[in-house]
Amino acid sequence: MKTTLFDPLQLGKITLDNRIAMAPMTRSRAVGDDVITPLAVEYYGQRASAGLIITEGSPISKVGRGYSFTPGIYTKEQIEGWKAVTDEVHRKGGKIFIQLWHVGRRSHSAIAGEQPMAPSAIKEADKVWGPLGNGEYGMIETDVPKAMTLEDIKNTQQDFIQAAKNAIEAGFDGVELHGAHGYLLDSFLRENANQRTDEYGGSAENRMRMVLETVEGVVNAIGADKTAIRISPFVAEGSAEHDPKVIETSLELIKKLDQFGLAYLHFSENISNYQEVKDDFRTQVRAMYHHPIMVAGKLTKEIAEDLLAKDYVDLVAFGQPFITNPDLVERFKNNWELTPVDYANHATFYGGGAEGYTDYKTYQQ
Ligand SMILES: Cc1cc2nc3c(=O)[nH]c(=O)nc-3n(C[C@H](O)[C@H](O)[C@H](O)COP(=O)(O)O)c2cc1C
């Protein structure tokens, strides 16, 4: 029997109604001291028919922030804000993980509140969205980051662990560590960002240490069944060049991650500066990794069905289609037309209020 989009899936102790996940998407609408906007209660609630919602990246600390208005999970007020979201999603029968985020070097001191930190003091090539200094917001150059001391590393791991505990307190079904897109955890894996000469740099084993220790810490704090990770071996985000060793390192990492029995392993593909993922890689991963696998990146219903039918993955995640189709699952089920992604109105992706956020209609509306 081939797996379909609408088959349930056991993920640790929770059962997902279907295999369709909502991919994590930053929407930059936080209020006050980086508290999730009350509008998010409606936004995530509208999308609760997804098998699993993964929230927008949620900074685990002040210095972990790389964009203005991203809702955190490190203060009491932020936890309270998220509680309203998880309550609503659960009330509607959905399941929700929060994405735990530390941007590392992809930031600026005007956002991070201090010099951003990274494995090594190497500036990132891209720009980030933050204060322009004239009261307005726009794209600003990243700062040269501070190379993390061993104490910074331990403190950051503690921040991930505390954020995971906060997430459970806020009612989340689990957490997804953001180990993709050139942010802190990913940057430890890559030689072009990590040139450390201590036990966190150099060999593949050393470059994986930060990720594996962080995963282990979070697993010990909240349980493997509530812990997941997103990685993006084929994406060089914020970097012109692909690290020649990152695929090999990622395969070793995946082999090591297998021992934890995480809720899922999530691959982000097909965005930014990416390389195509070959079937070969998927079969290799399937053979070495024995727990649920999720893939995201410009999927269509047909591509997603094919990935499931070939048994390359257990879950498929959709990002932008979920912005414009709150009832994406029902539309797929009934073969209803999708509301296309509004690229012309891209401005509402990040920032603003209800427009482009909670005002997309279901097919039946
Ligand atoms: C507006 C927007 C915000 C995003 N924010 C995040 C994020 O916070 N964390 C993350 O891992 N990926 C983020 N992504 C990437 C998505 O999770 C997803 O991988 C990507 O959009 C490709 O999937 P899609 O083609 O189905 O949209 C974002 C994408 C978009 C469009």
Word description of this protein:
There is one protein chain. The strands form four sheets. The protein has an eight-stranded parallel beta barrel, surrounded by four helices. The chain has a two-stranded antiparallel sheet with strand order 1-2. Strands 6-9 form a two-stranded parallel sheet. Helix content is 32%, strand content 17%. It has 365 residues and is an alpha/beta fold. The protein has one domain (9-349): Aldolase class I (TIM Barrel), CATH 3.20.20. The protein is built from eleven helices and 14 strands. The model has no long low-confidence stretch (mean pLDDT 96). Bound molecules: flavin mononucleotide.
List keywords for this structure.
alpha/beta, TIM Barrel, eight-stranded parallel β-barrel, 32% helix, 17% strand, binds flavin mononucleotide
Topology (elements, then pairings):
Blueprint: E1 9-11, E2 14-16, E3 20-22, H1 39-46, E4 52-59, H2 76-91, E5 96-101, H3 109-112, E6 117-118, E7 127-131, E8 137-141, E9 146-147, H4 150-169, E10 174-179, H5 184-189, H6 204-222, E11 227-231, H7 246-257, E12 264-268, H8 279-288, E13 293-296, H9 301-309, E14 315-318, H10 320-324, H11 328-334
Parallel strand pairs: 3-4, 3-14, 4-5, 5-10, 6-9, 10-11, 11-12, 12-13, 13-14
Antiparallel strand pairs: 1-2, 7-8
Bound molecules: flavin mononucleotide.
